[in-house]
Specification:
The protein has 387 residues and is α+β, with helices and mostly antiparallel strands. It has 12 helices and 17 strands. The strands form 4 sheets. Strands 1, 4, 5, 6, 7, 8, 9, 12, 13 and 14 form a 10-stranded mixed β-sheet that branches. A 3-stranded mixed β-sheet has the order 3-2-15. A two-stranded antiparallel ribbon has the order 10-11. Strand 10 and strand 11 form a beta hairpin. The protein starts with a strand and ends with a strand.
Length: 387
């Protein structure tokens, strides 16, 4: 029995910041952002959006009325949780109108959370093949204004429907994984902005890739050319470029050139959204699927998931027959319709999202998303469906 991703949905806000303009405002060479980290635009998340609304808006792209009775597991991977107790999944299931006979919970392990959820959903469907699971990676990346990490911010959510006999991608074999207790990135309790040792984190990312990829090759007898392409966790897209260069370093020049060219399709969306933390790998996967003209049925895609702290995992998925019918172009349309804002507007929005006051009511008239955060009432977050 094949198990895999039946459909993928993505959502981010309708606002973005031009990275070249941010660079100039920060007295930096624009190429430091455009080429040095590989980012062109940054999604800016307003106060009326958080991981709950982002996740619900992403899920609404793929959860149709005929699926309501089949979904009985909702998992949210995030490191931007809104509550120390209640899961984002509980809020999202309610907003979507899913049935009550359902399991909902949240997973935290930095940017690896959605992959953990995906693997749990795979195991669940294995013994419940008549059901479907909804796995969401939703985050808002914050490092602070005028910090080194500022140009790697972003936000959004990716939602994946996991099922038997999937219409898009099927798992191909098992995973290889590796973990260590390291302090490359962390966010202490009470902090809204992350702490990161950037150079160290980059080195750990690549070190973990070398562990899991070598283990995968040894375990399954795989070679690079078994894969049509790869998708990587992309905290910034230059990181993925380093990853693919690491994998192809011992290959002939023509093979290296081919995989480097293919990599560009996998980072097209991430370049203009920024860091999604738990959703970054899967936005890269979606970018590859919707922008690559070389993919065909039964092609194998290698995926590398990394979460600081740290956890790495490598696994493979195969494109199933008729996968093209699932790719609707909604993501391209969403990103094309966004509105550019100034650096000053971005800074104002950023500052407003650092503190949420009790009994605060939000102006949702400028937010045209289906699901929005309307107010905070006696510390309770109140969400509404606008259409």
């Amino acid at each position: 029995m094949k198990i895999g991703i039946d459909n993928i949905g993505f959502y981010t806000s309708n606002l973005f910041l031009d990275m070249a303009k941010l660079a100039k405002k920060r007295n930096e060479d624009p190429n430091k952002y455009l080429i040095g980290i590989g980012q062109e635009k940054m999604a800016v998340i307003p106060k009326t959006q958080d991981i709950v609304t982002l996740g619900a808006n992403a899920a609404s792209q793929i959860v149709t009325d005929d699926l309501m009775d089949e979904i009985d597991l909702v998992i949210v991977g995030t490191e931007s949780g809104m509550d120390n107790s209640k899961s984002a999944a509980a809020y999202i299931a309610n907003l979507l109108g899913l049935k009550n006979s359902i399991r909902t919970f949240e997973i935290k392990q930095a940017c690896y959370g959605a992959t953990a959820g995906l693997q749990m959903a795979k195991d669940y469907i294995q013994i419940h093949p008549d059901k479907k699971a909804l796995v969401i990676g939703a985050d808002i990346a914050k490092y602070g204004l005028k910090t080194k990490g500022e140009p790697t911010q972003g936000g959004g959510a990716v939602a994946m429907l996991v099922s038997a006999n999937p219409k898009l991608l099927a798992f191909d074999g098992d995973s290889t994984y590796y973990a260590e207790d390291v302090m490359d990135f962390w966010r202490p309790l009470g902090y809204s902005e992350a702490k990161v040792d950037g150079k160290f984190s980059t080195n750990v990312y690549l070190d973990f890739l070398s562990h899991v990829y070598a283990d995968y090759q040894d375990t399954y007898g795989a070679k690079l050319t078994d894969f049509a392409s790869f998708a990587f966790h992309l905290p910034y897209t230059k990181q993925g470029l380093k990853a693919i260069k690491f994998l192809i370093q011992n290959e002939p020049e023509e093979v290296q050139a081919s995989y480097l060219n293919k990599f560009e399709a996998s980072r097209k969306y991430n370049k203009i959204v920024g860091n999604l933390y738990t959703g970054s790998l899967y936005l890269s996967l979606l970018s590859l699927l919707e922008n690559a003209d070389f993919l065909k049925e039964n092609d194998k895609i290698g995926l590398y998931s990394y979460g600081s702290g740290a956890q790495g995992e490598f696994f493979a998925m195969k494109l199933v027959e008729g996968f093209q019918s699932v790719l609707t172009g909604k993501t391209k349309n969403l990103l094309a319709k966004r509105e550019e804002i100034s650096v000053e507007e971005y800074e104002k929005i950023y500052q407003s999202t650092l503190n949420y006051r009790d009994n605060e009511v939000f102006d949702v008239t400028e937010d045209h998303a289906r699901y929005v955060l309307a107010k905070i009432d006696d510390t309770k977050r109140i969400y509404i469906k606008q259409f």
